[in-house]
Write a structure and sequence with these properties.
Blueprint lengths: L13 E5 L8 H14 L4 E5 L6 H16 L7 E4 L8 H19 L5 E5 L6 H7 L4 E7 L2 H4 L3 E3 L6 E4 L1 H17 L4 E7 L7 H17 L2 E4 L6 H4 L13 H4 L5 H17 L5 H17 L12
Parallel strand pairs: 1-4, 1-5, 2-3, 2-4, 5-8, 8-9
Antiparallel strand pairs: 6-7
Helix pairs in contact: 1-2
The chain binds adenosine-5'-triphosphate and magnesium ion.
Amino acid sequence: MLMQAELGRPFSAHVIVLGNEKGGSGKSTTAMHVAVALLQAGQRVATIDLDSRQKSFSHYIENRREWAARTGIKLEIPVHYCVARGSGMRLDEIEAQEFAAFAQAVSSVEQSHDFVVIDTPGNDSYMMRLAHSMADTLITPLNDSFVDFDVLGTIDPISFEVAGVSHYAEMVREARRQRRLVDGGLTDWVVVRNRLSTLGSRNRRLVGEGVDALAKQLGFRTVDGFAERVVYREFFPRGLTALDDLNEDTLGLRPNSSHVTARDEVKVLIDALRLPIDERGKRRAAARAEWIAATGKPLDTYDLLAD
Ligand SMILES: Nc1ncnc2c1ncn2[C@@H]1O[C@H](COP(=O)(O)OP(=O)(O)OP(=O)(O)O)[C@@H](O)[C@H]1O
Ligand SMILES: [Mg+2]
């Protein structure tokens, strides 16, 4: 099997991978919010979609680009790649193709970007495992339900204590081990609880206790992510996020209190991820925002205000 070492670690970019074998847990939605947050912090961000069947992340970014072009509103857009699945009769051939395509996408952005955000499909595949073994930060969004929890571990039906570790968790353990072997790097694994009910519920508490117990066994951190909000579902057609300047022009309707709360919870999540955000980039972003506010015109090149 091809080794991750052949990809030429260490990268200069910090690699963030969104992963969970369970479909619909919020990987693509979170990937988009993380990418936009980093761009807004003046970081150079590239994005990679490994889910070439659904292409949700790619479509989200495409919608954003089209919406910006159509309205003339300045929206930050990452440099984006969608990596196709391999095809053929033999598994080793398919894997070799996937490895080459993935390696090409990574190597074309790793030196020129501060962050690479990789969205993965909700099922086990060679490319998905490859991405996991490369993560500096692995974000696993988890819906607030025991059905979703099952992807990480099993729970005793009487005591609600952790009874076992599931396939995906084993895969992550192996990917982290590989990573340590190859370059001594550590993966910060963060399980982000998504679609939390805004009302305190027994289920939320019980799932929380299970996740905390598993965190100790498997070595991940848990943070609260987004609450269940309709706004997260409405953003997609225009490629917007809760972090964008939402007004009637961008959103098509007056933003409401849910948008404000969503924006705050995204910011809390980004802080909790403890990503190595470069201060120079932050200053650049602040200078750029000031400049835009003063002239009312967007800058068209990234580096005009570079130090
Ligand atoms: N916090 C939230 N509140 C409400 N809806 C949400 C929230 N997060 C995600 N969703 C919705 O849930 C669905 C699944 O989200 P998303 O596509 O991000 O998950 P995914 O893990 O990428 O799924 P897949 O495994 O299919 O790629 C989408 O319809 C999305 O709009
Ligand atoms: Mg997805």
